[in-house]
Amino acid sequence: MEAKSERIESLVRQLIVELGEDPNREGLLRSPARIANSLQFLTSGYGVDIYKLVNGACFAQETTSMVILRDIEFYSLCEHHILPFFGRCHIGYLPSGRVFGVSKLARLVNVFARRLQLQERLTEQISHAIMDAVQPIGVGVMIEAQHLCMMMRGVEKQDAIMTTSSLLGSFRENVATRQEFLALINRPRP
Ligand SMILES: [Zn+2]
Question: Is the torsion defined by CA of 148, 152, 158, 164 positive or negative?
Answer without folding.
Answer: negative
